[in-house]
């Protein structure tokens, strides 16, 4: 076994041939890049991605889109969960949809038009009315999710995306933030009105995923500082316990922390904490060892992980079966373990 594949020794079996099977081209494309180290323009990667655009789940998601770029109804697209506009848009990125596809670009343009707010952040609303949502609707979780999607689809240089990055960085650090909106983001360091004004770890994970998507050479000093704050916060607790600040009266972390799944909506799980910290260069930090051990304990005898949060019957099309061995969750786990060495 090559040195760079030493992480496989921790698995009960090698799942790579299963992940690279041509029956699931979207997974195959992602696995070729993440686990085999293929460049994104490798012919096999391109062939798998091309096929993935023509089969489910991407085919059905795009098939349900209105020509104007939205799903279900016009407006900011937060409702219905998880079949409204912003969710389908985010899931397309998670599935590796082609950024150059005309429907993907129509969705990006519509989301930017429908969610941009006067304060710069991207806001949420379930309304069917095509008008910008109020500043109080900007959340770390949605703003971070949309930032990651837009940046990975090639929109980093759009002025509205840069404004949303600026809002995120200032909301995290408090630097230059002139006004807080108590109903949602109520203070620096991920404080959130929905979490009774306490820092929200789900919001922190999503915000860091958005910032991690910015190429390192293009991160401003403010963005770098916000990443430092976010990393420090995520390391402030043992990720395998996930006892981050909770709403008043709650003494146990949400069970969703421990239900590894795909696709990813607004909740985060333990694996997603590991993913974003690894992406930000902390995959081998000793503080992650308990969480990595927990992750390894979740595999089955075939070195596979189950999808315990699949959003079945909530999404435009079911992506995987609830409770069954999951190629996407297994790929997520293997990506983290490979980064951890």
Textual characterization of the structure:
The chain is mainly α and 341 residues long. It is 42% helix and 3% strand. It is built from 13 helices and five strands. The chain has helices at residues 16-19, 25-34, 43-52, 58-63, 85-94, 102-115, 140-152, 159-173, 201-212, 221-234, 270-282, 289-297, 327-340, and strands at 185-187, 191-192, 198-199, 305-306, 325-326. Strands 1-2-3 form a three-stranded antiparallel beta sheet. Strands 4-5 form a two-stranded antiparallel ribbon. β2 (191-192) and β3 form a beta hairpin. α5 (85-94) crosses α6 (102-115). It is globular and about 55 Å long.
List keywords for this structure.
3-stranded antiparallel β-sheet; two-stranded antiparallel ribbon; mainly alpha; Glycosyltransferase; about 350 residues; 5 strands; single chain; globular; about 5% strand; about 40% helix
What's the SSE pattern?
HHHHHHHHEEEHHHHEEH
User: Could you tell me how far the N terminus lies from the C terminus, measured between alpha carbons in angstroms?
Assistant: 13 Å
Low-confidence stretches: none
- How many strand elements? 5
Q: Report the average pLDDT across residues.
A: 96
Number of domains: 1
Count helical runs. Answer: 13
The profile of the biggest β sheet is: 3 strands, antiparallel
Content of β-strand: under 5%
**SSE-based structural type:** mainly alpha
Gross CATH architecture: Alpha/alpha barrel
From the 3D structure, determine the CATH topology: Glycosyltransferase
Name of the CATH first level: Mainly Alpha
Shape: globular
């Amino acid at each position: 076994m090559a040195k760079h594949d030493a992480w496989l020794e921790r698995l009960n079996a090698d799942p790579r041939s299963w992940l690279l099977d041509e029956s699931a081209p979207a997974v195959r494309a992602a696995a070729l890049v993440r686990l085999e180290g293929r460049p994104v323009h490798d012919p096999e990667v391109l062939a798998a991605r091309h096929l993935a655009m023509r089969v489910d789940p991407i085919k059905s998601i795009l098939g349900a889109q209105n020509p104007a770029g939205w799903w279900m109804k016009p407006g900011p697209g937060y409702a219905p969960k998880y079949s409204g506009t912003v969710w389908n848009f985010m899931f397309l990125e998670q599935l590796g949809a082609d950024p150059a596809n005309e429907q993907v670009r129509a969705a990006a343009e519509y989301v930017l038009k429908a969610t941009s707010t006067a304060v710069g952040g991207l806001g949420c609303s379930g309304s069917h009315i095509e008008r910008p949502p109020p500043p109080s609707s900007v959340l770390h979780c949605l703003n971070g999710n949309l930032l990651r999607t837009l940046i990975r689809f090639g929109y980093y240089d759009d002025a509205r995306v840069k404004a949303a990055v600026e809002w995120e960085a200032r909301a995290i650090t408090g630097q230059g933030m002139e006004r807080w909106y108590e109903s949602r983001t109520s203070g620096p360091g991920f404080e959130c009105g929905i979490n009774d004004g306490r820092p929200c770890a789900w919001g922190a994970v999503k915000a860091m995923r958005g910032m991690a998507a910015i190429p390192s050479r293009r991160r401003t000093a403010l963005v770098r500082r916000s990443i430092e704050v976010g990393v420090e916060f995520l390391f402030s607790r043992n990720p395998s316990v996930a006892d981050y600040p909770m709403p008043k009266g709650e003494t146990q972390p949400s069970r969703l922390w421990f239900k590894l799944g795909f696709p990813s909506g607004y909740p985060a799980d333990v694996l997603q904490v590991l993913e974003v910290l690894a992406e930000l260069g902390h995959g081998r930090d000793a503080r992650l060892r308990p969480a990595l051990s927990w992750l390894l304990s979740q595999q089955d005898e075939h070195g596979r992980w189950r999808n315990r949060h699949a959003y079945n019957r909530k999404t435009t099309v079911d992506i995987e079966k609830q409770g069954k061995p999951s190629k996407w969750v297994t790929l997520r786990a293997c990506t983290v373990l490979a980064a951890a060495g």
